[in-house]
Sequence to fold (207 residues):
Amino acid sequence: MSGARTPTRVVVFLHGHGDTPDEYVRLAPQFLPAGAELVAPVGPRTVDGGTYAWFEPGPDGGPVAAQLEAALASVSATVEAACDAYETLPEHVVVAGFSQGGAVALAWALREGSLGRGQGPRVGGVCCVAGWLPDAEGLELDLAHPVEVPFLIAHGDDDEAVPLPMGRSVLRVLERTGWPVTFAGGAHGHEVAPFAGAIRSWLDARP
Fold:
């Protein structure tokens, strides 16, 4: 009699603004644990050069609220579709993102009612590379009620696009309010590749 099938682990990776999923598909062998699957959705907005984004900035510099809400709904639908496709549960899914994709991953995970505190699925972890915590009208965050969902914040010291203090501020907020969080840094710019080893080690610790 055979044992139970090991659940498939899935990483949903959200690209940045003016980006495509291609780079993360190429990098996947460097950061995915053995047996894990990558799902790299395309952002809902088309921008310059046939690339994509999750939202555009509004007049105040923050995300256009309706666009961010659509992006968050897209992430929820992607997690659900990944669970169906790989016959796994949300607890075996990690939601990750780079730059704007990292900001969307954080907003999705930390908004009110997320991560099993309401209708949102409780995933196995959240990873933000070179991102920030966005602020948009109608986005209600719930930082005061942490759950045992681990976060990885990875941010380069020499990031020229999203300065290090923006990533550090996310780390401080999570630490201060009691969320389980790990930080990966180093003399890196605005990129994912230098963090591949740190991401893989962190993912290896996830169920």
User: Anything to note?
Assistant: The longest strand covers residues 93-98. The first helix runs from residue 22 to 31. Helices lie at 22-31, 65-86, 100-110, 164-177, 196-204. The mean pLDDT is 94.
